[in-house]
Amino acid sequence: MSKNLLFIPGPVTVAETVLGATARPLIDHRGPEFKALLESIERRLKPIFGTERAQILILGSSGTGGLEAAVGNLFGPGDRVLACPNGVFGDRLVAIARTFGCEVEVLDTPWGGAVDAAALRARLAAATGDARFDGVLLTHNETSTGAQNDLATLAEAVRGHGAYVVVDSVSGLAASEFRMDEWDFDVVVSASQKALAAPPGLTMVAVAPRAWQRIEANLTAQRFYFDLRKAREFAVLGQTPWTPPVSIVFGLDAALDEFERTGAAAVHERHARYARAIRAAGQALGLEAYSHDGAHSPTVVALRLPAGVDGDAIRRSLREGRGVVIGGGQKDLKGKIIRIGTMGDLTQTDVLGALGALEIALLEAGAPIHAGTGVQAALNVFLEAEQPAAV
Question: Measured between alpha carbons, how far is 336 from 38 in angstroms, rounded to an integer?
């Protein structure tokens, strides 16, 4: 079987040890072995989320299901929510809140940029009395634009307002430092198939103590499968309310082994280094980063294509001719950008190979580039990272 290199924003290439774990014989999801497994996974996820106080629930779902659970359990009809999207997935969070009957106000941010903390602080300060917001919706990492928000500054902007803060960190968690407790976030959502580099199928929902009070008091909530109260009730027993994807739980456990073996700091540095190398290659090839300075994502690099070059055609050439799979633009960006992920079981050699393949595809498409310049720029980033620090 031929193996494609996945440079998309998820699912990602997973290690052989993780794949092997998913092939283990199934066990009773109501038995003691599964109970021990769930408890171990929650314990090991806590430092990745940066929490000691929050309870982390494991649900069988994509990340979108976790976001629906977060919004649907905290909020309901008539609740006022301030959403801060800066791309497609932030807009999806807006749509979820509106589906549950929330009155959603949007703090607009240009795509490719990060949310302005001063603007967020000012809008919250202006919302007084009956106009106060019940919730704030933040996106940590926006894969549609290759942009990432500085959550520390946004946390300071929200602090003291009293609104419940939901954070979509589906594609951000584990790729950079996260401090849920320090930042006073109420619910944080992630998923298995991104920086943790496990197969898709699990969402992780971290719920702070204050949020549980709100969830219990939300009597108008429409919830059944994604009822976090029921998930907490079963978690005490070491179970999930509904049949979980047991094989994916095995995979996540093995992926956490890989994460711990490498070390959090090294994992964070690797994602940042790969992203720097890809941006450097893009600059050398005349492909401008779509994300703004100061807002670059470590997990996805979005590059603008030259006029007349179709991004979908480039992607097709890479996929069909060279076994390299990258992402494309969404909505208004369709065909105009390419998106190259850094997550998963990828080596520096894989990155250089993918960039070389990209150069060939661009040359075949008639793009005005100089062959070899992109790969050389990326290689320079890698070589600089390997130089010993000056004494």
Answer: 43
Q: How high is the pLDDT of residue 2?
A: 55
What is the torsion angle, in degrees rounded to the nearest 10, for the CA atoms of residue 336, residue 151, residue 210 and residue 96? Answer: -10
- Using alpha carbons, list the distances in angstroms from residue 30 to 35, 43, 238, 269, 336: 7, 19, 8, 39, 49
Residue type, 52: E
Q: What are phi and psi of 5, to 5 degrees?
A: -90, 120
Distance CA 68, CA 61 (A): 10
Q: Positive or negative CA dihedral for 111, 112, 114, 119? A: negative
Tell me how many degrees the CA angle 230-234-240 measures, rounded to the nearest 5: 95
Mind listing the pLDDT tens digit for each residue in 282-294?
999 999 999 999 9
What's the whole-model pTM score?
A: 0.96
Please give the pLDDT value at position 390: 46
CA 152 distance to own-chain centroid: 17
Dist CA 189 CA 152 (whole Å): 17
Phi, psi of 222 (to 5 degrees): -100, 105
DSSP, collapsed to helix, strand or coil, labels residue 5 as: strand
Q: Write down the number of H helices and E strands in the chain.
A: 14, 13
What token pair was written down for 222?
């429409």
Domains of the chain: 18-260 (3.40.640.10), 263-386 (3.90.1150.10)
DSSP code string of 244-286: --HHHHHHHHHHHHHHHHH-HHHHHHHHHHHHHHHHHHHHHTT
Contact 296, 176 (CB under 8 A): no
